[in-house]
């Protein structure tokens, strides 16, 4: 089974090496790595060119202006030839070397359309210090009425599902990932499986958690997505998610330090 991994980049030179090294280090080898660059003006392309030969033909990339993150992800899905497709952001990296091995093993069951697991957030200065552990273990589809979804950076879905039910709707400003998973999991009822593993280490400060204004935009996008897909909810129900997130942050203070893989920080 071939797994396609998509990374969207734009001026990502400061973190991209860790992302690429974590893909290169995966023990599962039937990987297609796709980098979609939005015409970066820093050293992003130089880094891509440096690593391209190390993938022995498994890395392909494009660099051109795009209409944002979700447009870049859609380009990556169009470029993908793997049986299953997932996304690894350019400031994130796989937590350990066997992430894709676990994905491939779970998806060897032909009844499964998609898999997902856990992720955790760290500060850029302390990659071993978990500031929030985002577990998908308790997720149930009905939770999407409250704005919950499986950790999207851990979501790997059969490419045929995207062909059948569509990619990211780029009209959403900050929550096209939620709308996509709502459409696939809640509305189309694809068959999913949770993997009890920490898939991805994520640096804080991304699009979805930058500030209070972005959180309000997320809520607006969530409400719009729910209405568009005829799923009942309300702003009150959506606000409950932030209580749960606050508890995750508090509990994460007691999380033991997470060992940072040896491929992180290589030059």
Please tell me about this protein's structure.
It is a single chain. The chain is 34% helix and 22% strand. The chain has 267 residues and is α/β, with parallel strands linked by helices. It has one domain (3-252): Spore Coat Polysaccharide Biosynthesis Protein SpsA, Chain A (Alpha-Beta Complex). Strands 1, 2, 3, 4, 5, 6, 7, 8 and 9 form a nine-stranded mixed sheet that branches. Helix 6 runs parallel beside helix 7 (212-228). Residues 206-210 have low confidence and may be disordered.
Which CATH class is shown?
Alpha Beta
Report the structural category. Answer: alpha/beta
Number of helical elements: 8
Rg from Cα: 18 Å
Output the CATH homologous superfamily.
Spore Coat Polysaccharide Biosynthesis Protein SpsA, Chain A
Short characterization:
The protein is of the alpha/beta class and 267 residues long. Helices cover 34% and strands 22% of the residues. α6 packs parallel to α7.
């Amino acid at each position: 089974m071939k797994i396609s991994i998509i990374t969207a980049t734009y001026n990502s030179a400061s973190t991209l090496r860790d992302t690429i090294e974590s893909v290169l280090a995966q023990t599962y080898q039937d990987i297609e790595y796709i980098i979609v660059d939005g015409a970066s003006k820093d050293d992003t392309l130089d880094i891509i060119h440096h690593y391209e030969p190390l993938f022995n033909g498994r890395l392909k990339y494009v660099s051109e202006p795009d209409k944002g993150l979700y447009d870049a992800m859609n380009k990556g899905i169009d470029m993908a030839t793997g049986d299953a497709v997932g996304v690894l952001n350019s400031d994130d990296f796989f937590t350990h070397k066997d992430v894709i091995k676990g994905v491939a093993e779970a998806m060897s069951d032909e009844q499964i359309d998609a898999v997902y697991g856990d992720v955790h957030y760290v500060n850029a200065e302390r990659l071993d210090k978990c500031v929030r552990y985002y577990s998908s273990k308790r997720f149930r589809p009905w939770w999407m009425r409250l704005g919950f979804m499986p950790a999207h950076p851990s979501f790997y879905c059969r490419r045929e599902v995207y062909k059948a039910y569509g990619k990211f709707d780029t009209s959403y400003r900050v929550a096209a990932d939620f709308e996509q998973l709502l459409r696939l999991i809640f509305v189309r009822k694809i068959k999913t499986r949770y993997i009890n593993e920490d898939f991805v280490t994520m640096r804080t400060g991304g699009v979805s958690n930058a500030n209070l204004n972005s959180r309000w935009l997320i809520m607006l996008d969530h409400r719009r997505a729910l209405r568009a897909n005829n799923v009942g909810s309300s702003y009150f129900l959506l606000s409950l998610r932030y209580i749960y997130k606050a508890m995750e942050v508090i509990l994460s203070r007691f999380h033991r330090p997470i060992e940072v893989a040896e491929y992180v920080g290589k030059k």
